[in-house]
């Protein structure tokens, strides 16, 4: 059996036991609170991991892009939500191909104009497409405003012969910029209420809303408890990372994804690793999070801070003494697991430090 320390670097490592623990924690929360679980696979982009999530009770998956949906469909996954507004005719034709494969497809919508494009492309097909309304719960990215605007869009969906309304969703991604657990709590409650209040507005008008869905790893255990919510869509929680640990959502010990790196240079005032921006990414959180220190946590070496990155070099500064020397290998917990996984083609899966397989990053 190969020890992971015998691998070349940089290598994307995945701790199998921590992965299963993280998946089961989400699934247990969903079961306890009578929620459906539809994980966002943009974190891992792996059919193998998605199938583990389905085995744990997930009702389907969420993707951010059509290529992600196509890859998951090719891997045998049949129930897919694309949580991104799609309006270009080129992209809609790809949606139709997924429908032709028998995929139970859902898409997100937040404008009447987008609905018109969907209707136009679907009119000459035998298919009806399920559409979920995106409401803005504070991220101020995509989405209609909760309440009356959601009702108006719901009425538009109902007026189109080739569209059917399946649910209302939101994503509180601004929770990644929270400065305290109390702020995460406030964001999570607002997230849940934005969806529930919008659904209630629709149902008062006689439009049923079967699914009320929330996401965001920092908030799903808060928004998921709001009465009326029926589904959670956390993504990052499958792995966790240094940002989530910095937010207080988890601990570094629960982070399943690491990068195996080598010391490629030792100098009087710095240590250089073979993991630069093309490996660790220049990411401290897309929404301004300031809780992380440096560009990744060097496991077992708190004296080292990766202070700067060039493309193939991670430059660490040392506070005090260190035992690290040339060719030593270390694990680095990335700041943002989603972007780092996106840089690799394969996970090297290990258990107790021994390699047990390789899973493709589709």
Automatic annotation (TrEMBL):
SMART domains: D-ser_dehydrat (SM01119). Keywords: Lyase. GO terms for molecular function: D-serine ammonia-lyase activity. CDD domains: PLPDE_III_LS_D-TA_like. GO terms for biological process: D-serine catabolic process. SUPFAM superfamilies: PLP-binding barrel. Residues 256-351 form the D-serine dehydratase-like domain. Gene3D superfamilies: Alanine racemase, D-serine dehydratase-like domain. Pfam families: Ala_racemase_N, D-ser_dehydrat. Belongs to the DSD1 family. This is D-TA family PLP-dependent enzyme.
């Amino acid at each position: 059996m190969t020890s992971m320390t015998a691998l070349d670097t940089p290598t994307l490592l995945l701790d199998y036991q921590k992965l299963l623990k993280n998946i089961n924690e989400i699934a247990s929360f969903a079961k306890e609170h009578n929620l459906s679980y539809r994980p966002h696979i943009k974190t891992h982009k792996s059919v193998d991991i998605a199938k583990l999530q389905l085995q744990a009770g997930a009702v389907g998956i969420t993707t951010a892009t059509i290529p992600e949906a196509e890859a998951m469909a090719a891997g045998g996954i049949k129930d897919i939500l694309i949580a991104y507004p799609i309006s270009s005719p080129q992209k809609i034709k790809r949606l139709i191909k997924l429908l032709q494969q028998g995929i139970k497809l859902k898409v997100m919508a937040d404008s009447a104009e987008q609905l018109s494009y969907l209707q136009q492309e679907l009119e000459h097909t035998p298919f009806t497409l399920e559409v979920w309304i995106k409401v803005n719960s504070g991220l101020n990215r995509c989405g209609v405003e909760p309440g009356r605007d959601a009702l108006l869009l719901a009425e538009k969906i109902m007026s189109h012969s080739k569209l059917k309304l399946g649910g209302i969703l939101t994503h509180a991604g601004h929770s990644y910029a929270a400065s305290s657990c109390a702020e995460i709590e406030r964001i999570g409650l607002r997230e849940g209420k934005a969806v529930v209040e919008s659904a209630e507005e629709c149902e008062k008008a006689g439009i049923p809303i079967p699914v009320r869905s929330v996401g965001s790893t920092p908030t799903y255990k808060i928004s998921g408890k709001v009465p009326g919510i029926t589904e959670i869509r956390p993504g990052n929680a499958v792995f966790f990372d240094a940002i989530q640990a910095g937010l207080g959502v988890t601990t570094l010990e629960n982070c399943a994804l690491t990068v195996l790196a080598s010391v490629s240079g030792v100098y009087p005032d710095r240590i250089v690793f073979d993991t630069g921006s093309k490996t660790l990414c220049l990411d401290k959180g897309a929404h301004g999070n300031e809780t992380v220190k440096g560009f990744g946590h060097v496991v077992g070496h708190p004296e080292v801070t990766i202070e700067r990155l060039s493309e193939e070099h991670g430059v660490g500064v040392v506070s005090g003494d260190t035992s690290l020397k040339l060719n030593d290998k270390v694990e680095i917990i990335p700041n943002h697991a989603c972007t780092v996984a996106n840089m690799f083609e394969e996970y090297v899966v290990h258990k107790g430090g021994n390699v047990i397989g390789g899973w493709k990053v589709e």
